[in-house]
Design goal:
single chain, 109 residues, alpha+beta, 2 domains, four-stranded antiparallel sheet, 4 strands, 27% strand, extended
Length: 109
């Protein structure tokens, strides 16, 4: 994570200790979809936190203050984002297939 490129994301305590947060998603070797959060506090070593996405979903579903409209909003946004990811995967697959077909055609000549 390039802290100097992004600037600090937050400040801890009144003393102003800088905090950097970066997040990504991954599917681990066991097929578990995780949210991965990287925290860096001041000049200390980066801390990595992995949270299975199903735990985040359970927290949302079990929160007594969650309304049905917020659940619809969350699910709609997740559907939109999944379509963006799916479209990118399809373009990558099509591109790989096209390159493979090109080389197969060259081998046949």
């Amino acid at each position: 994570m390039a802290n100097e490129d992004l600037g600090q994301d937050a400040t801890l305590f009144d003393e102003g200790i800088p905090l950097w947060v970066d997040a990504e998603v991954e599917v681990d070797d066991d097929g578990i979809f995780n949210l991965v959060v990287y925290l860096t506090v001041d000049e200390f070593e980066e801390i990595t936190i992995r949270k299975p996405f199903h735990e985040i979903t359970e927290q949302v579903l079990n929160d007594d203050e969650t309304t049905y409209s917020s659940l619809y909003a969350i699910s709609n946004d997740m559907v939109r984002e999944s379509e963006v990811i799916r479209e990118k995967a399809q373009r990558m697959e099509d591109s790989t297939g096209n390159v493979s077909d090109l080389f197969d055609a060259d081998d046949a000549t």
